[in-house]
Amino acid sequence: MHARAPDVEEKSEANSEEKLSESEQRIAPDQFDERYVTTKAEIYAYYSYYVGVNGLTLFSKKRQELTTIRLTDFAPSAFQNLLSQAAGDEGLLPFAGQTRTVNSIVLLSNGISFAIQTILFLFIGSFADFGSWRPWLLIVQSIVAYGVGFGWLGVHDGSKWRAAVGLYIVGLIAYQLTFTFWNAAFPGLARNTPEMKDKADSYVAGAITRDEYDYADSLMRSRLANVAYIIQSFVEVIILAVIIGIMFGVKVTASEANNNWGFSVIIAFGSAIWLVVSLPWFFLEKHRPGQDPGRRSILVAGFWQILHGIKAIWKLKQSLVYLIGRAGPRELRRREVTPRGHEFLFFSLFSIIGKASSFIGPLVSSAIIDASKSHNNWTPFYFLFALSLASCAVLILFVDLKKSQAEQEKFLEDKAKVLAEKLKTASAELA
Fold first, then answer.
1. How far is Cα 308 from Cα 96, in angstroms, rounded to an integer?
2. Mind giving me the DSSP string for 13-31?
């Protein structure tokens, strides 16, 4: 006697039940809380803060002369301007225990600033990742930055070059802290958008694959980042146009004193803009909780995070290669070598390495200049060029993104297995 073969209807019901079972087992990579859904107003407030933290006043990468009516990064230029006036024809000033050239002092100041930043990030950097203190710390750091910007109104004479050193160093620190703590809100902002919530629902329902969800997440982050950059760049052009008008208004080319005063006024103006455009973010940002530090204090969690990152990165060879090569180029698809759900962990590690290279480079360059008999400012160029060339070679020749993705998947699978074993052991002990 043969068993009756299941008919088409029974097969269909079985398949439906199987699909339902699979969908019930699916868990969205990102969990959503209705209280923290990202609004359009919040996104535009985020963009607005980026306009303020453009770096034009306290720190930037544009290096040109104000006296020739061209665009510049104003605080660093004002700093070097006052140093040059104080140094006179000799070009030397007493600083940090010995007589140094202007460029040596600038490099050493950069090194000191980044060294302090590294220490600060070790202690308070974890507040950007853990708990709910990040928004409040950003407000405090921003206030310090505004204060430094307005403080330049009182420093516009060569005799006050020591005060300029202090403002310059504190300004660099304030800028980097504010930018980092503002940027730390980005993952939560992108992943709590209504669009990503819809994608998460589709993933749980089995309508899309994990790869499709990850692609949508990457696309959303890229879109927000690109729009932020476009808006910031457009508004920056307007700000720079106003600044040019200010330069003509204070007649910066008329005298050295006018030139000095022009720097101070422009720095204060940029700081005032920063203050105004940052207010919407302070009021509209939803204070999304960060990671739970567990039984550790948030201060200890930062050190634990770095140690854990160092242990984990040995399992991710491509991430390790990227980390080694990063001491040249500052940014290169950092997210592509970071395991999903561990962004804070690895970004912290990348940040610490970046800060370390940022203060070691200037200190070494300053030492090279001071050691040369002619105090030639170009002497460190050969060292820096070779270092940059080596870093680029490492990144181009040895970082394989496909291998990195495979390593990340294995890393996450291994971590999931370890967690499952711990839960199993804990359940057995309770039983």
1. 37
2. HHHHHHHHHHHHH---SS-
Alpha-carbon distances, residue 358 vs 40, 111, 353 (angstroms) = 36, 7, 9
pLDDT tens for residues 51-74?
998 766 665 544 333 333 333 378
Closest C-alpha to 50, from 194, 288, 267, 225: 225
The answer to whether residues 67 and 49 touch, using CB atoms and an 8 Å cutoff, is no
* Mean pLDDT of the region 370-376: 74
Calpha distance 431→425 (Å, rounded): 10
**Residue ranges of E strands in 229-378:** none
- How far apart are the C-alpha atoms of 32 and 182, rounded to whole Å? 21
Q: What tokens appear for 239 in the block?
A: 């700000």
Strand, helix or coil at 399? coil
> What percentage of the chain exceeds 70 in pLDDT?
77
Q: Give residues with Cβ within 8 angstroms of 232, minimum separation 6.
A: 47, 50, 51, 54
Contact between residue 361 and residue 354 where contact means Cβ atoms under 8 Å apart: no
By CB atoms closer than 10 A (0-12, 13-18, 19+), residue 102 is: buried
pLDDT-derived band at 265, boundaries 50, 70, 90: very high
Token pair listed for 302: 């930062």
97 contact partners, CB below 8 Å, separation of at least 6 = none
Dist. CA 369–CA 68, nearest whole Å: 28
Name the pTM for this structure. Answer: 0.75
* DSSP state letters, 177-205: HHHHHHHTTHHHHHHTSHHHHHHHHHHHH
Structure tokens at 116: 């302090």
CA distances, 191 to each of 165, 188, 412 (Å): 41, 5, 19
pLDDT digits (tens, 9 = 90+) for 174-227: 988 898 889 888 888 988 999 999 998 998 888 998 888 888 888 898 899 899
3-state SS assignment for residue 33: coil
- Please name the amino acid found at residue 289: P
Q: Where are the beta strands (DSSP E) in 253-321?
A: none
